[in-house]
Amino acid sequence: MVKNEIDDSDNENQSQYMKDNVVYNSPENLVMVKSYGNTIVVVCKDEHQVQPVMDRMNTDTCFLSDYEEWDEDEDMKWILTFKVTDDYEQLPEKN
Fold this sequence. Notes:
Distance between the termini: 48 Å
Order of helices and strands: EEEHEE
Number of strands: 5
Helix content: under 10%
Mean pLDDT: 77
Strand order of the largest sheet: 1-2-3-5-4
Largest sheet: 5 strands, antiparallel
């Protein structure tokens, strides 16, 4: 059985495909994704996944709002929280 690949090259509109209050998780996923309201939480299993996730998720209307390293050793997870803004909302100033 061959799975259809989803073309996600249009990262600008990435958040419009996510439904509210849904956990996007299945055994073959590399990361766990949960959405609620204007927030998207991504849990990475490996540190090398963090930068690619940030590269994909950071757009004109989506930004990293929280970063947390959770647990230790081989059980360690990286929790990235992104906030999705509407066109009329202003993004926070960058340092």
